[in-house]
């Protein structure tokens, strides 16, 4: 199964998945209590240092995973510029970048199997039925599995557009991208059905 775990070995790979996931939850909650560009920027700088400690190759992987945020942050900043509240817009964008960067750091350094094992133990303690546990674990695995696959197919669509047109790619690519995603979902559903479905 494809996952987002980095092939670059780092000290973070040796940390247990449970504490990392708990730390990520606490960090994300704490980040959204920061209310100035300086404090949120400082947190993001510490995260950047955490990536750089593991080498430039690992840091570049983390930076590539932040690219989808560019358009989101542009929309957020455009709105806040329109209402003349640039400082709050900067805080929102920096909070979002810090939360996603921290999540990427955990994902890049934690095996999917280890994360699912943590969830399995948590559901067991919460007395969630085995049937529901299996379904949740499968859903999480499929989401993580298809993130890089859909990203790759989206990039292929953009490259095809650029090869056939001098215009910048537009919203018109959303329909073929959605059709590709639906086709993948249908194939996975058929494969699960052929194997007996999800109990």
Describe the secondary-structure layout.
Elements: H1 17-31, H2 37-52, H3 56-65, H4 69-82, H5 86-108, H6 112-125, H7 130-164, H8 174-194
Structure commentary:
This protein has 199 residues and is mainly alpha-helical. It has two domains: 11-110, no CATH class; 129-194, no CATH class. The protein is built from eight helices and no strands. 14% of the residues are buried.
Descriptive tags:
199 residues; mainly alpha; 2 domains; 8 helices; 0% strand
What can be said about this structure in brief?
By secondary structure, this protein is mainly alpha-helical.
Strand content: under 5%
- The figure for the number of domains is 2
Which residue ranges are poorly predicted, with pLDDT under 50 across at least 5 consecutive positions?
A: none
* Topology order in helix (H) and strand (E) letters: HHHHHHHH
Task: State the major sheet.
Answer: none
- Average per-residue pLDDT, rounded, comes to 81
Which outline best applies? Answer: globular
The number of helices is 8
Q: How many β-strand stretches?
A: 0
Separation, N- and C-terminal Cα atoms: 21 Å
Structural class: mainly alpha
- How big is the Rg? 20 Å
Percent helix among the residues? Answer: over 70%
